[in-house]
Amino acid sequence: MKKQLAYLCIIVSLLSAALFYNGTTSADTQVVNNAEQTYQLAEKAMFYLRVLKSDGTASATGTGVILSPGGTAVTAYHVVKGADRMEGVMADGTVISPIKVTKYDELKDVAVLELPAPAAMKMKNNVYAYLQVRKDAVEHGEAVFALGYPLKNTNIITEGIVNTPAAEINGRSRILTSAQVASGMSGGPLMDAHGQLAGVISGSLRTMNNIHLIVNNDDVRSLLPPVLK
């Protein structure tokens, strides 16, 4: 009887250990996306951004990224500085207008945008596709992807690594990345391999070839509505 009880205890212990191991593994494992998968996640959550003159022609262009189903978006402030009128063009050609700046910080190079109600723009299920903002900081050597619109109707993706998560540039902390950035991609998303927004594209570093500047999520989050922080 004692031997049977001992065997039973061993079996229960092994089963408990197996359940604990499996639970821990599933909870800790994150999906890792390649460039194709990352593009598919981000394509519908970003847009070509045009700052318009009074005659309807563009005075500046860049990229915006949507962060909520209701239409809260962000871009680089230098793209929309002084703008009176703006519109976005989605990947499927849908024109989003009017777009308003609700908050900005010139030093951080971040502007928060408000898009029209998704129902008014006839978005599927009356919501915008959007990206989640990553909470923890990126790390040295981490794989990242930069996306944006260097040309209208031409959204691109580039791949690189985080060269450093925190470089002091003109009084601000910036992420440096080797993911290539072209003019027009400013305001677009830097994505991590888990499908989250890791930062917002700000520009290039002239003193280092092929190294580019990204606004970190602390600076982005500081301007977002409380529900998105």
Compact summary:
This protein is α+β, with helices and mostly antiparallel strands and about 230 residues long.
What's the pLDDT, averaged over the residues? Answer: 89
Q: In oligomeric terms, what are we looking at? A: single chain
| DSSP E strands, number | 13
Order of helices and strands: HHEEEHEEEEEEEEEEH
The profile of the biggest β sheet is:
7 strands, antiparallel
Total of DSSP H or I helical runs spanning 4+ residues: 4
Computed Rg: 22 Å
Portion of residues in helices? 10-25%
Strand content range: 35-45%
- List unreliable stretches of 5+ residues: 8-27
How would you write the strand order of the largest sheet? 5-4-1-2-3-7-6
Q: Looking at the structure, what is the overall shape?
A: globular
Secondary structural class: alpha+beta
Distance between the termini: 59 Å
Overview of the structural elements:
By secondary structure, this protein is an alpha+beta fold. Helix content is 19%, strand content 38%. The protein is built from 4 helices and 13 strands. A 7-stranded antiparallel sheet has the order 5-4-1-2-3-7-6. Strands 8-9-10-13-12-11 form a 6-stranded antiparallel barrel. A hairpin with a 7-residue loop joins β12 and β13. The longest helix has 27 residues, at 2-28. The radius of gyration is 22 Å and the shape is globular.
Search tags:
alpha+beta; seven-stranded antiparallel sheet; 19% helix; globular
Q: What is the element layout, followed by pairings?
A:
Blueprint: H1 2-28, H2 35-42, E1 46-52, E2 58-66, E3 72-75, H3 77-80, E4 85-89, E5 95-96, E6 100-105, E7 110-114, E8 143-151, E9 154-169, E10 172-177, E11 189-192, E12 197-204, E13 212-216, H4 217-221
Antiparallel strand pairs: 1-2, 1-4, 2-3, 3-7, 4-5, 6-7, 8-9, 8-11, 9-10, 10-13, 11-12, 12-13
